[in-house]
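Much of what follows relies on a compact textual record of a protein's fold. Each token is a code from a learned vocabulary of local backbone shapes. The record below shows the convention in full.
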Amino acid sequence: MKIKKWHLFAVIITLFCVSFFVINLKFDKFYRLNGINNDNRVIIEEYLDEKEQVYLVENQIDIDQFIRFIKYDDFHLENYQYYNLLDKYTDYSHTKIISVGNNLVARLEFLFNTNAYSHAEQLVKNSLEQAFLHDENFDFQYINIYKNLKDIYGKNDYSYIDDTIIYINKLKLYGITEQKDIEDKFEQLSKSYNQSSLKVLMSKPYDANVGIVYNPYEFTTIVNDYTYIGEYSPRELILTQDIPRVKYSMYLQKDAYSALIKMYQALNEKYDRFLLVDAYTSPEALKKDNKKVGYCEEQLGLTICVSQRELAYKQFDETEMSKWLQQHAHEYGFVLRYPKRKASVTNHSYDAHMYRYVGKSLAKTLYESQLTLEEYTEQKKL
């Protein structure tokens, strides 16, 4: 039986194609890789062993994904994703990328096996890879807490890993046990305190009658014998310039200072001899004065003590300036902190000198309702 010519031609073409594929596979196994060229081919053959070359071909890895790392000592092709992750989110040198990447792979694969890379993403995106590698107590369930705390610790200080456990146990004493609530508290704490002041705050012996203040930066914060802020100091303190004051170095929180400037300018159009007697008081100054650090509202940088020059301190209450302040201070965000007939609520006798910045909106509410900050806060709880 004769074979038709076109059948023979088809067989020849098929054999040619198969032969071409086999020859190329044998002599250029990288030809189907994205980004392959003669230069890269030489580099791959020089730096990758046979096993890695097989891995490269089988997984069809783009050349651009690893070629910039291939010449470094301890490069491992199977770790290329980790190298790229570090390259994207850190400013490490390529040498350090290789080192850190390899260490991450070793520990994460030991702990999490197939989920290793997803955990690496959590670490690197939150700049926590070094903490994870340096402290074996690192716990992924606290990763949201770590990323808040790390910014208030030194660059290479990973003690927040161990401190987290101590602080969580302290929060639980105050009845904060749910994970989301714990994370929220740590977010507030990291906005308010630095490393040392947080340690002071959380080192206070537990007292059921005294609560710690998590958010002293808020305008509604009350500090007294039953609320504790440790050695808190506001982060945005402004020198009280352009205001008559008893000493040069007097500071207020930024918003309070801006409001005081406007209030002083309005007041000065009607009455002269205004004097700022006191403002922010640091924990160090309180210690010198034998006052209770952590229980003093002047630490907030929101309280001012005012008076009138060339006048006896006790006579200020009777002045037109004092009356103007009591009628208009709320327009600028201030309220008389310790008003008449409220001592049983504020636990402080009437004081015409003391004003507290709470923001315009709340100041208007307190002025119109004649409520103290304590009364307002209690009503908000109901």
Notes: The two ends are 102 Å apart (CA to CA). The longest strand covers residues 351-357. The chain is about 50% helix and 10% strand. The chain has a mean pLDDT of 92.
